[in-house]
Amino acid sequence: MRALQSLLILLGTYLLIILIDYLQGLNIWHSFYSIKQYFTVARGEDYFLLISFMLIFLYLIIFSAIKNRQPPSS
User: Fold this and answer.
1) Domain ranges, residue 63
2) Does residue 42 fall inside a structural domain?
């Protein structure tokens, strides 16, 4: 279940990047280039969304690890 949530966050972040690129007048397929080329042409909001995703992803991993350590309460 956690993997599905993480994948949905990744997909949502990537769709936001595509939408912002499209609104800026770039080709809609512009974001499907290689990672190296993508980071070369990325703008500030693209980096913001990528960093936001990484922070949310790390939060989910750490939160689920802490939650699994605690004994179940009855």
Assistant:
1) 2-69
2) yes
Q: Is residue 12 part of a domain?
A: yes
Those residues whose C-beta lies under 8 Å from the C-beta of residue 52, and which sit 6 or more positions away, are 13
For every residue of the chain, DSSP letters joined together read -HHHHHHHHHHHHHHHHHHHHHHTT--GGGGGS-HHHHHHH--HHHHHHHHHHHHHHHHHHHHHHHHHHSPPP-
Query: 0.85 exceeded by the pTM?
Result: no
Domain total in the chain: 1
User: How does pLDDT run across 25-52, given as a tens digit for each residue?
Assistant: 877 666 666 456 666 777 777 778 788 8
